[in-house]
Amino acid sequence: MQSTFKEALKENVFKNISIIVLTFLFLSQIQNSVSTLSTESINDFLLIVSMLLVTVCFANFAFSYEYSKVSDFGMRLLSHFATFLFMFLIALLLATIVIGISKVYPELYFLILFFSILLYVGIALYDFWDFLRAFHK
After folding, report:
1. Under a CB-based contact definition with an 8 Å cutoff, are residues 123 and 87 in contact?
2. Which tens digit of pLDDT belongs to each residue from 45-88?
3. Secondary structure of 34-85 as H, E, C letters
4. How many domains does the chain have?
5. Cα 56 from chain centroid?
6. Which domain holds residue 113?
7. Residue partners of 58: CB distance under 8 A and separation at least 6
8. Alpha carbons 25 and 20: distance in angstroms, whole number
9. Are 88 and 19 in contact (CB under 8 A)?
10. CA-to-CA distance for 102 and 26, rounded, in angstroms?
11. Phi/psi class of residue 32: alpha, beta or left (left: φ > 0; alpha: ψ in -120 to 50)?
12. Helix, strand, or coil here: 137?
């Protein structure tokens, strides 16, 4: 079980680092897409993105490694993939919100960026906590 835990922990760390790297790779595409929006439509766009963010956050927090058979590689991989998708979407949607707000309210950019970083760090910590909880039940 100890070697399985170490392997799974490495997988989880790799997953979380991959999410951050991929999010940074997508930033310019998000920036380009948001820059095409008119200032009149940006508020509606941010509302839609916020609704998607709430939905994916709900899905992310509804999932738990505790209900997976984490000692089984296939189940663990499926669990990692599900949380990868949820957390990657959360990161992309947060980035989209930060970029969108910077277009409409540039004076709030650093505040919203700070809040978004804190939110994502909390989500990543929750992911690690949930992962550790599954191995220590």
Report:
1. yes
2. 999 999 999 999 999 999 999 898 888 999 999 999 999 999 99
3. HHCCCCCCHHHHHHHHHHHHHHHHHHHHHCCHHHCCCCCHHHHHHHHHHHHH
4. 1
5. 9
6. 2-135
7. none
8. 9
9. yes
10. 17
11. alpha
12. coil
Non-local CB neighbours of 68 within 8 Å, separated by 6+ positions: 75, 76, 78, 79, 134
**Which of 116, 90, 124, 95 shows the shortest CA–CA distance to 12?**
124
Which residue bears the tokens 């663990």?
76
CA dist 105 and 33 (Å) reads 17
Question: What crossing angle do the helices spanning 109-135 and 42-62 adopt, rounded to 10°?
Answer: 10
- pTM given for the model: 0.94
Question: What are the tokens at 11?
Answer: 């997988």
Residue type at 99? I
Q: Do 92 and 52 meet the contact criterion of CB atoms below 8 Å apart?
A: no
* Centroid of chain to Cα 39: 27
**Residue 1 clears pLDDT 60, i.e. is over it:** no
Q: At which residue do the structure tokens 């766009």 appear?
A: 45
**Amino acid, res. 97:** I
